[in-house]
Amino acid sequence: MRIRFGYVANALGLWDASPSKTLTYARYSALSPQERLEKLKMVTALNLQHTKRILHYNIAHEIEVYRFSSSLVPLATHPEVMWDFVTPFKKEWEELGQLVRQYGIRPSFHPNQFTLFTSLKEHITQNAVIDMQYHYQMLEAMNVLDNGMLNIHIGGAYGDKANALKRFHKNIQILPSEIKRKMTLENDDKTYHVEETLKTCEKENIPMVLDYHHHMANPTTEELITFLPRIFQTWETTSYKPKVHISSPKAENAYRSHADYVSLDFILPFLTMAKEINQDFDVMIEAKQKNLAMLRLIEEIASIRGVKRISGATLEW
To answer: I need a labelling partner for 108 at 20 to 30 A (CA). Which of 34, 67, 94, 256 fits?
Structure first.
């Protein structure tokens, strides 16, 4: 079993390298029309530059799994802005994509929790489509549609989970088919547990991302091992390895919050379970200390008898 590890957005330790610098709509509105576009371009250019630095960090450390920041482009989906963020940065997007392709990095985005398809309100569904289009555009601008994915949650239950799921299946049809082919669904920590998410994925032919921490916070009545082979099988129609999200609770009284680092004791039962299936998969670390948490966890897992570290961020067990 081979496991590749990755992390989210920002490489901590790199000086001033946040790829998520923002521009509020209030600040944007206070500027003159000419200043507005200049400011949008300035912040975007900085985020793209920092992302390039982060990709070079990943390459140097042999990290092949990486989630790009969703905040690369300020106000990209704001209805009063909606600007062309591709054309002015065609070269920069292509440079990022070249690095991704050349070094075999698996890229992804995770649109925010408001990108959902279960709402009773049509405008929320339309906004979800707009947000998915924005993320798809970034994959397209980098020319990494072949291996890039967009991961979201099913959404809210609104007091009636059965009907909410029916709305999901109806509303998801609004999403352009080329974007739907790039999406994955993840179980969440409060509403849709592993079994419900898996059945939704199977019905829509969408790969499922297992979030182990979310499963522990919102478990099914049956053991996870019952569903794990089926979760991995949802990836068989793609050219990708299954992906799993890993984190651990911040505290007993803040169980759903992510800790700074990942507790090996917390995730070891899952790794042992996965070892029984013997399926290669990729791991996205969702800890507050990001790449630092990832590297610490890799070293801890590598100390287990039978585990071999075969690159900077890949283990074989």
So the answer is: 256
What's the mean per-residue pLDDT of the chain? Answer: 96
Q: What's the CA gap between 100 and 107, in Å, rounded?
A: 7
Q: Which of 66, 64, 86, 79 is nearest to 19 (CA)?
A: 66
pLDDT digits (tens, 9 = 90+) for 196-238: 999 999 999 999 999 999 999 999 999 999 999 999 999 998 9
Q: What is the dihedral of CA 186, 191, 196, 200, to 10 degrees?
A: -60
User: Can you give the pTM of this predicted structure?
Assistant: 0.96
pLDDT at 252: 86
Nearest to 133 by CA among 67, 63, 86: 86
Name the one residue in this structure whose structure tokens are 């070269």: 91
* Distance from C-alpha of 307 to C-alpha of 218, rounded to nearest angstrom: 30
Torsion angle, alpha carbons of 275, 280, 284, 287, to 10: 20
